[in-house]
Amino acid sequence: MNIPNDLLYSRDHEWLRIEGETATLGITEFAQDELGEIVFVEVNEMNRPLQKDDIFGSVEAVKAVSDLFMPCAGEIIAINNDLEEHPEWVNEDPYGKGWMIQIRLMDAATAADALMDAAAYQDLIQ
Hints:
Shape: globular
Largest sheet: 6 strands, antiparallel
Order of helices and strands: EEEHEEEEEHEH
Number of strands: 9
Distance between the termini: 10 Å
Strand order of the largest sheet: 1-2-3-9-8-5
CATH architecture: Beta Barrel
Helix content: 10-25%
Number of domains: 1
CATH superfamily: RNA polymerase II/Efflux pump adaptor protein, barrel-sandwich hybrid domain
Strand content: 35-45%
């Protein structure tokens, strides 16, 4: 299972790459593997503040539909619109082309406090 060391992880199986005041998010390799073949990704509207644990969208797979939860408070500033044509990228490259949203963090200084590093996430999924 690929769990990059340079990312942070939520208990809901989202990953974050924090760069200053912004973060890129997607679902982990573990999550996409559990869901199976991804056929559709839907993200809620942009430019609206969301709190930690708010639903920001959903992922539809052959097996199930799963909500996507904000791992920290922020505002969606970009959506990976390429996933409309290529939802399979979430399966093929969840930490690269399969990213879902970028957010402006409400509190960049504390955003990582409730998240896990790669080792802690590995322990969670075992």
